[in-house]
Amino acid sequence: MPTSRNIAAIAAVAAVIAAVVGVAWSMGDEPGAAPEVPGEQRGEPAPTEVASTTSTAPANTPSGSTSSSTWSLPDQPPIPAAGVAPTQAQPRTATDPATVNVVTAPAGPPARQELAGPQDAAVAWLSRWCPFTTTEERFGDAERRARPAMTDAAWSLFDPTGDERATRSWHQATAAGETGRCSAAVAQLVPSAPRTAERVVVRVTADRVVTTATGARYVESVSSTRVVLRQADGAWLVDLAAVGG
Questions:
Q1: Res. 196: pLDDT tops 90
Q2: How far apart, in whole angstroms, are the C-alpha atoms of residue 80 and residue 66?
Q3: 115, 101 Cβ separation under 8 angstroms
Q4: Residue 125 and residue 239: Cα distance in Å, rounded?
Q5: Which of 235, 239, 233 is closest to 117 using CA atoms?
Q6: pTM to 2 decimal places
Q7: For residue 201, which of 47, 69, 175, 193 is within the disulfide window of CB 3.0 to 4.6 Å?
Q8: pLDDT band at 85 (very low <50, low <70, confident <90, very high)
Q9: β-bridge partners, 209
């Protein structure tokens, strides 16, 4: 092919390329615009990254929630300049002794069936030491009646011998000629306390009607929250007082 014709062909191809580039430039973005992200369509905003935040909602997220937020308690409000008003104790209404159904205290050590379960053991324990009489018993006799329903560790702290506070209380009751009779003890497992097949926490209560030598009567509430342990022979015994109870 002659040189003049070859130059003419190259010039024609160059003109076509220049025309195509000009059309593409006129249809494209303005100079300096950000390039398109592959796979995205025009008119649709690109995904926005959400910043992680800390929620002040309570930490009781419903079961099954997949939220990864960090839960925290709200800040404690400031104490007013004038201070906080003191809590007013509510007066306790006295129980009418006539409304308390007292029962006969069990005699002798607890039978095997009385220690068959933790609640049974707690009832057997309290029902033996709750009632008392200062006219027919010696100091500590009521507590000693409950000894067979207790572990050695519990008895070492429950034994009133050598306890100055218990001694003073007994002397005061003796001077007033007091006698105490109790309602049937009621024992319940503490639902919030951890438990195993060998160890549970039981709260046992009763009402005690105290009568003085002058015939005056009043009611006092008797209660205790105790750890109760299952022994090797299957019997349950009252152990130490539960922490916080």
A1: yes
A2: 39
A3: no
A4: 11
A5: 235
A6: 0.62
A7: 193
A8: low
A9: 181, 219
